[in-house]
Each structure stands twice: as structure tokens, then as C-alpha cells.
Amino acid sequence: xxxxxxxxxxxxxxxxxxxxxxxAILPLVLPMMGGHISLATxxxxxxxxxxxxxxxxxxxxxxxxxxxxxxxxxxxxxxLCELHLTKQVWFVPIFSGILxxxxxxxxxxxxxxxKRGIYxxxxxxxxxxxxxxxxxxxxxxxxxxxxxxxxxxxxxxxxGLFSFDLSNAxxxxxxxxxxxxxxxxxxxxxxxxxxxxxxxxxxQNETRARYLGYNTFWYKCAxxxxxxxxxxxxxxxxxxxxxxxxxxxxxxxxxxxxVMLTLIGGGLxxxxxxxxxxxxxxxxxxxxSSYTQHWQIFMGIIFVIFILAFPEGLFGIVKKHKLFRPxxxxx
Amino acid sequence: xxIDPMASCPSAKESEAWMLGHFLNHLFNGVVLxxxxxxxxxxxxxVLGVMEVVNFAHGVLFAIGAYFAFALVKLVGxxxxxxxxxxxxxxxxxxxxxxxxxxxxxxxxxxGLLLTFSIAMGLEGLIKLIWxxxxxxxxxxxxxxGFIDLGFVVYSKYRFIQGVLxxxxxxxxxxxxxxxxxxAVIKAGTISTEMVMALGKNLPRLRTLVFGMGSFLAGxxxxxxxxxxxxxxGIGTEAMMPALVxxxxxxxxxxxxxxxxxxxxxxxxxxxxxxxxxLxxxxxxxxxxxxxxxxxxxxxxxxxxxxx
Lengths: 331, 308
What we know:
The complex is a heterodimer.
Chain A: H1 3-12, H2 15-24, H3 26-29, H4 37-60, H5 68-84, H6 91-112, H7 117-137, H8 139-142, E1 155-158, E2 162-165, H9 169-191, H10 194-204, H11 206-211, H12 216-242, H13 252-265, H14 273-291, H15 295-309, H16 313-320
Antiparallel strand pairs in A: 1-2
Chain B: H1 5-8, H2 12-51, H3 57-76, H4 78-99, H5 109-131, E1 147-149, E2 154-156, H6 157-179, H7 181-191, H8 193-198, H9 203-229, H10 235-250, H11 255-275, H12 283-294
Antiparallel strand pairs in B: 1-2
Helix pairs in contact in B: 2-6, 2-7, 2-9, 2-10, 2-11, 3-4, 3-5, 3-9, 3-10, 4-9, 6-7, 6-9, 10-11, 10-12
């Protein structure tokens, strides 16, 4: 085999490419199984959210239990910018959503990064609720209970070359997929960098990391901010997906959901866990809620069994039985 | 009909008195709310202290207490419901603990949080299945209707009874933890479970019992507040979040801290309802942030294993 061929093969085996290919064919396969493309889009958005969250949970060992706040901030940042500034220039609302989530995440990270353990979870939860109530009560800005509606998905235009109208469900799906691939690339770069190594040290033993001379406070704060930025991206996409921004996006139950899907996928021990988790979680939720209005009972029971039987998550089972060798990123 | 113009516009002095009464009423509402939140928070932090489990099912147990009372009130009346319903909730809690929750003590605390979260989700679904998604109301017992004249202020009789009962519960818990041998064992369990086991105490039974106590407190708070707050499937969450704030503000594992923080949160909320109702459910979180920035471990918190 010549050099180029093997290079292409190796590139094809690259996890990012594999993921992209897998999801790229999904819209073709999904209708055969009776699914809808919006379901797949939701899976992708939640995957971004899960990956962002997993940077904190899986790599730094910090259980944020209020992460829906940053998703919601992304959605509101996008919506507010569209409603008050511009709908024409496509990148402005998107970046303002991401930026808003990032700024808020930085501020929160600055306040809580001296903490860890259960205290960290409870604080992030309470701060998340703080933002939820602000979004819920501040009618003038956030629309209160009714939320912000009437958003549009921007059209991507490079003058004279191409234009993509995102209100088309399929094009939107591939746009979200592109965003997912970009997120994966960025986050993988981060976790495999020296910075990522320090984060994993903090997960295993923060005191030791401090004694090695790392200012763990800033590492944790930076990690929280990056996670917030990526969650903000997920929020922006979610606002585009639903054409609106609700206070409900910030509700703590959604924060619980993202922890759950990360864990189900096996995010604690693998980078790509949240992708599998998001797929299982969203599809199961849709499946149950389409058959019965009492889907909560079944979800609850399944999660309880899952947590008790497979605490390492899906990727954990795969790894334990050596079905194939996914990347081991942390111990 | 001749109307005396002076009757409808009270003199400055009268209006001042009315203002003061109004203020005292809201202040008392805050105090009573604080006592109730303390009861919920104590159940939560008891479980957190001994088992190191963030019990997200606490809220749903609270809701179940209220629903049981709703079912029982028609059969046996309010006061018996107030007694029986929490006991049933405690039994349910002990079943959950010994069947499910005890399996994850050896794992990362994250799993306890997720397991109870899943249990809460399932139980909330069950509530919706049995009682439907709409809300109900429980009438307060007849003799607690109306108002009571406390001499300096006329106050809702039922809220007054609520406050007294909550105070009684807190006192009983304090006596149990501070003055009985078993209370001492539980307190020891919050410091070192290994040591408790090494001293020959039956740790699994202790944990089941503590969980039962926590559930009892959640259940009884659910019954007590039901005539005031109403009953709906989501009520558990609504009640648990403030209690969680109380735990964080008071400092984890501190009974006195929870009492002080409960009063702080209750009074701040009660007065915000009077002056700026829109902020009423926001203020406690702001309070929490302020307290946290000034005292990172809460008002009375000490360094504990929970920070690891």
C-alpha cells in the first residue's frame, strides 16, 4: 500500500472523522427506523452539551449540577441579540450567545473554583437556580414565562459563492454536525494538551497538583469557562432548533439530565461517552414519551438499574469486556 | 347612605399602625417559613452528614407526604394524617435506602446524587400516574381556620400552628441528637463511619434509620405545608431548593447553622414578598451568594469530608 493510501486509512480511523461519518449518514438511515431528523439534531446538540460538561466532570472531576444555566445563557444571548441587534449578520447572534455564556461561566467559576466535592455540586446547583429565577422573573428582558419567541435561523452567505438556509431541517442538521465536529476537535486538543494533563491531575489529586506548583484555582476556573462557552454553543443551537428561548432551559432538571447522559455514556472514563449517552438518553426519552405520558417512571427505573448495574457507563462496559479499545483518557 | 369621609381614610396614626401590623405579618410569615425550611433542611442534611449522599429524593418524599395526607385526610382527619403520613413516608424511605441507595455508598458521591435523582424522577412519574398532573388543595383543619390575636398583631391561626409544630419538631430532633445515646451514635456517624462500625454499632441499620428519619421530616413538612402551598407533582422540587440553600448558608452538618440560616432565608423571603414580590424567590439565592463569598463554609460550617 502506498504512503498516501495508508495515510488516508489512518485518517479515516481517526475518531473525529469516524464520528462525523457515523452521524453524517444518520439522516439517511433514520427515516428507515421511523425516526425524525429533528430527533437526530437534538441528539447532536445534547452531545455538544455533554462533551462540554464532561470536560468538567470526566477530566477535572468537578460535578457541576447547574450546567443548564450556561445552555440557557447561550440561548438567551442568541435570542436577545437577534431580537434587539441584528438578524442579518449570521455570526453576531451566534457569537454573542456563546460569549454571554462564557462570561457568566467565568464569573461563576471565579466564585466557586476554590471548592470541590459535594459543596461544589450544591453551589453550582443553587447558582443555576439563581439564573433560572432571573430568567423566569425578569419579564422585560427575558420574556418571563412566555420566553423569547419569533427567532429565525440565520442564512449563511458568502457573497457570490453559496448560501445555506438553516431553516431547512437537513441543512440545519449538518450545520449542527459541523459544530459538533468543531467542538470535538477543540476539546480533544484541550484535553490532550499540557493544560488538559493538569486538569486530569486535579481530578486525581488536587492537593498534589498544587504542591507541584500549579495554580489549580485558575485551571479550574478556566476549565469552567471553556465548558461554559461550549455549553453556550449548545444553547445557541438549541435556541435555533426550537426557534425560542425559555427560562425552562435553565431549570435544574436539565442540569440533572446532562449529568445523567454523560454518566450513561461513560463520560467518566472516555472522551466520546457523552455522544453515546446523548443518543441513548434523547432517543429513550422520545420513545417513552411517545408511547406513554408516564415516561418519567420508566426513565427513572431504567436509570436506577443502569447506575446500580453499570456504574462505569456504556463505554465502561465496552472497555471492561475489551470489546474494542476506545481511547483511555483518564484513570 | 351617609358616608363618614373620615372612616374610609384612616388617620396618620392608624395607617402607621396598619403598616406595622402588615410588616409584622410578613415578618412572621418569614419566621414560620424559615422554621419549615429548617425542618426540610435538617432531614436533608442528616442524610448528607451520615451517608454523604446528596438526597435529591428528599423533595419527592416531601411531595409524597403531602399526597398521602391528601388521601388520608378524608378518612381519618387532618391530625391523624399529620401523624400517619410521615410514618408511611419514613417506611418508604427506609425501603428505598435498604433496597437501592445502600448499594452506592462505596462509590463516588456523584452516584448517590444521580441515583436519588433517578429515584425522584421515577417517583414523581408515579405521583402523576396515581394522582394526575393537576394540583389539589387540602383544607386546613376547621379549628385552625381564621385568625389569632397575639396581642400586638392579628395572625393567621394555621400559620401560627405550623410555626409551633415546626419549632417542636426541631426541638425534638435537637433533644434526640444531643441528649440520647443513639443521637450520639448518629452524630459520630457524621464524623467517622468506620469508627462507628469499629465500635460495634450496626452501621447498615443506623443508616437505614437515619434515612427513615430524614424521610419522616420531609414527609411531615409536606403535610404541614400542604394547606398553605397546595399539592402538585412538582411541589417537592419547589420545597427542596430553598432547603438546600438553607443547608449551604448554614454550613453543612450544623444543626444550629440550619436553624439560623432557615430564619435568615425565611425572613429575607418574607420581607421581599412585602416590598418587592417579584424578587421573592430570587432573594434567597442572592443571600446565599453573599454569605458564601463572606464565609465559604457557610455560617456555622466546619471543614468536613464533604469537601473532598
